[in-house]
Amino acid sequence: METAATAGKGPSTEQLVAEAYDELRQRARAMSRGAPPTLAGTAGLHTALEQILRRRTTFRDARHFTAYCLFLIRRLWISRWRATARRRGREAASLLPVLTLLHGEALTGSREDSMAVLELLARLRADPDISRRRRIARAVECHLVAGFTQQETADLLGESKGMVQQRLAFFLAWARLAVAPDLALVERAAAAASVDPRLGRSQAIADSARRYYLHGESRPAIAEALGSTPARVEQDLRLFAAWVAARQAKGRSEGDGEE
Which range is least confidently modeled, 88-92, 188-192, 209-213? Predict the structure, then answer.
């Protein structure tokens, strides 16, 4: 009897699991910072492999299989996060990861950052005026949220790298317009940070935050404008994000979070 492999349909799923398992285990462990504990590392990998074997999904080759498996692991995390997430009001802290994403930077795997970006992707998927919006959202989820390379994203979607780049560029342009009404929250946070005596170098921190989050300037450009260094700008941005998160948490505990 002719097998799927000999019939020209590519290797069997079992063959692909055996071939890619060691690489998948290493990559699953490396990407598991911030993952739900029950789905971190090999636990998430085995759950994903179980689903793949049960569904009998067809793969073109090992590269396609690896990209799909890693994507499925991230989707399992997202489902778990969504099941346990509490509804939150719009706050400056939830906008910072979105604004970081608009620089084209992949996010790290924390629940809060990923959920903020996924809320924006949900708005994109619901926009009837955008054609191919589901493909655009999936490209963003793979490359900028899950951290796959553009080529891995192309392999997973069955598209060219150039098409993936076009989808990402469209999303970034769309997202800048989508978040524009909320930028006043970040401006107010920067203004408050600039006069907070507890922050050393408060004015420089606020200036870096305004230039990066509100004006979309790069770290080297900010450093040149402020007579600083990219490393110092990076430190100031991290301090600003931590200050905003602490301020937000305090507001929640006092029952009077930001409007």
Answer: 88-92
User: If we measure between CA atoms, which residue out of 15, 23, 25, 70 comes closest to residue 48?
Assistant: 70
Among 57, 84, 111, the domain-final residue is: 84
* Residues in contact with 71: Cβ distance below 8 Å, sequence separation at least 6, in sequence order: 141, 142, 146, 148, 156
Write the DSSP symbol of residue 109. Answer: S
Whether 227 is in a domain gets the answer yes
- With a CB cutoff of 8 Å and minimum separation 6, the contacts of 127 are 133
Residue 62 near residue 19 (C-beta atoms within 8 A): yes
pLDDT band at 110 (very low <50, low <70, confident <90, very high): low
Same domain for 176 and 115, yes or no, is yes
- The proportion of the chain whose per-residue pLDDT surpasses 70, expressed as a percent, equals 83
Same domain, 194 and 159: no
The answer to whether residue 71 is domain-embedded is yes
Q: Are 156 and 68 in contact (CB under 8 A)?
A: yes
Query: Residue 38: inside a domain, yes or no?
Result: yes
Half-sphere exposure (Cβ direction) of 113: Cα atoms closer than 13 Å: 20
139: closest CA among 119, 161, 167, 117?
167
The domain total for the chain is: 3
Given pLDDT bands bounded at 50, 70 and 90, which one contains residue 128?
A: confident
Domain extent at residue 221: 182-253
The closest of 240, 236, 217 to 228, measured between CA atoms, is 236
